[in-house]
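Deviation from plan, reported transparently: FE2/S2 (inorganic) cluster complex.
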Amino acid sequence: MIGDQPEPGTRFPDSRPESEQPPWRLDFPIDVPQDNYIARRDSVKFLVLTSFAFVVGQIWIAAKSLVRGRGAPPSQRIATVDEIPLGGAIGFNYPGPTDPCLLLRTADGTLLAYGQKCTHLSCAVVPELEHDRLHCPCHVGSFDVATGRPLAGPPDAPCPW
Ligand code: FES
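Because the crystal trials were delayed, the predicted structure below was used instead.
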């Protein structure tokens, strides 16, 4: 487009002359031959760049999982036994600050640790030691306290240790 005028050779999609075009089309003219050329080239650019971004993303994810998978995370002091009441629990984050976990002390004194994210859709599970289970309030799922095995509701994978 040159100024307010369409470029010479511009064809309108309905093939009518410029004088018969509606005002909106003159405000937003589409140079059909240029549009086809640019659209094809832009599409190829978009596809190449998008594919490149996906490849870079996959490489990033693979590298990150390789680095994360090396070795066990370091041990971390959570609490002393006396700080956890019998039949009680405390929350902590491990191995990272965004990984909520629970340290449980059952009525017989057994210490158990679980990740607090439900294996269904990652809601926080709540200990219900009086019922020997971890309860997920989101979809009424529950896990066995002793084994982490799913007992009820939609979760089908055990609660992670
Ligand atoms: S998120 Fe826990 S049961 Fe759905």
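The radius of gyration is 31 Å. We consider this an acceptable substitute for the interim report.
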